């Protein structure tokens, strides 16, 4: 397939996944800061500063009052056009990429993406205030999650679909590792661990597997290393590995390009590391190493399949 088409599929998927993750994180932290931390301005600002750091945004909230911190962060993360990682920007980028490969997508996928775009473009901080931000964020989250299902159900599982998979799971694993990196290990309270699980969409799956245990090591083990949970870093990396080898038609555990080589060095780390080793190193340090390797993986995918050919 054309490199241009593959790249559009990849970035379409990454930005849909990014919008979904951001909507969920904002919803979780809006509820948490208004509930438990509303009386603590320092704590609220710390929480929101960590959220901005996780998604790669730069905004100083220190000059904002405690009452305005959540609203300021919400509006910046939702409607800012100054950054490519706000919900509005992500959905605009996803739609632009979908428009460029319209013929490769099913009608159902295009209608879902375009409908989401029209919904978000029609909103504003004032219009959202009537029903509250949670209603808007859950609409975005539910629609973006549904788009993933529509893609799997209506797009032929060929190379185009594989690039959609790579984009989805690379973005998901990157955000999960950043969430762990931003987690404060000095706060082992159940409320903080629950916030971590909810940001990873892992609260109910974790409760079913661990039977309501809330040990910090078990929480970290679940979101980083669980082989069955679809948002754990290990699960995502294995899905990327499978998609890359379907595209190249090489046997897994071998490599034919730089992307597969980089991934081949990362996968055993997640398969064989013990949670005790992660705790000994420090979860933030381990997550930072993961983030760096995932960044290198993204660069390798782009270099292998979307090369920039200079024009003489």
The profile of the biggest β sheet is: none
Helix coverage percent: over 70%
| H and E order | HHHHHHHHHHHHHHH
Low-confidence stretches: none
Instruction: Indicate the proportion of strand residues.
Output: under 5%
Spatial separation of the terminal alpha carbons: 24 Å
Mean pLDDT: 89
Number of strands: 0
| Backbone structural class | mainly alpha
> What number of structural domains do the residues give?
2
Treating each run of at least 4 consecutive H or I residues as one helix, how many helices?
Answer: 15
**Quick one: overall form?**
globular
Taking Cα atoms only, what radius of gyration do you get, to the nearest Å?
A: 19 Å
In summary, what is this structure?
This protein has 312 residues and is mostly helical. The protein contains 15 helices and no strands.
Q: Which key features would you list for this structure?
A:
2 domains, 312 residues, 74% helix, 0% strand, mainly alpha, single chain, 15 helices
Tell me what the structure shows.
It is a single chain. This protein is mainly α and 312 residues long. Helices cover 74% and strands 0% of the residues.
What's the SSE blueprint?
Blueprint: H1 3-35, H2 41-54, H3 66-79, H4 87-100, H5 107-121, H6 125-131, H7 133-154, H8 159-182, H9 190-199, H10 203-210, H11 216-225, H12 233-248, H13 258-272, H14 275-281, H15 283-305
Helix pairs in contact: 1-2, 1-3, 1-4, 1-7, 1-8, 2-3, 2-8, 4-5, 5-7, 6-7, 8-12, 8-15, 12-13, 13-15, 14-15
């Amino acid at each position: 397939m054309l490199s241009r088409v593959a790249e559009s599929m990849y970035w379409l998927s990454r930005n849909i996944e990014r919008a979904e993750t951001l909507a969920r994180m904002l919803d979780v932290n809006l509820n948490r800061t208004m509930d438990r931390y509303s009386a603590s301005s320092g704590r609220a600002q710390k929480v929101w500063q960590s959220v901005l750091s996780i998604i790669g945004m730069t905004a100083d909230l220190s000059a904002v009052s405690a009452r305005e911190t959540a609203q300021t962060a919400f509006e910046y993360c939702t409607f800012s056009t100054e950054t490519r990682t706000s919900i509005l920007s992500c959905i605009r980028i996803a739609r632009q990429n979908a428009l460029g490969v319209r013929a490769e997508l099913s009608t159902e996928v295009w209608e879902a993406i375009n409908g989401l775009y029209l919904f978000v473009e029609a909103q504003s901080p004032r219009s959202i205030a009537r029903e509250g931000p949670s209603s808007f964020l859950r609409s975005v989250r539910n629609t973006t999650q549904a788009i993933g299902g529509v893609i799997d159900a209506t797009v032929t599982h060929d190379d185009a679909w594989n690039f959609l998979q790579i984009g989805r799971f690379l973005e998901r694993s990157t955000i999960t590792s950043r969430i762990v990196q931003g987690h404060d290990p000095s706060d082992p309270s159940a409320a903080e661990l629950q916030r971590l699980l909810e940001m990873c969409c892992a609260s109910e799956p974790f409760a079913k597997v661990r039977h309501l245990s809330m040990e910090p090591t078990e929480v970290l083990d679940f979101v980083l290393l669980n082989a069955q949970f679809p948002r754990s870093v290990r699960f995502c990396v294995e899905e990327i590995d499978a998609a890359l080898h379907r595209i190249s038609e090489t046997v897994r555990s071998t490599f034919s390009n730089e992307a597969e080589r980089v991934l081949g060095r990362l996968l055993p780390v997640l398969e064989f590391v013990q949670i005790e080793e992660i705790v000994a190193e420090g979860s933030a340090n381990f997550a930072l190493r993961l983030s760096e390797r995932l960044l290198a993986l993204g660069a390798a995918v782009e270099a292998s399949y979307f090369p920039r050919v200079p024009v003489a």
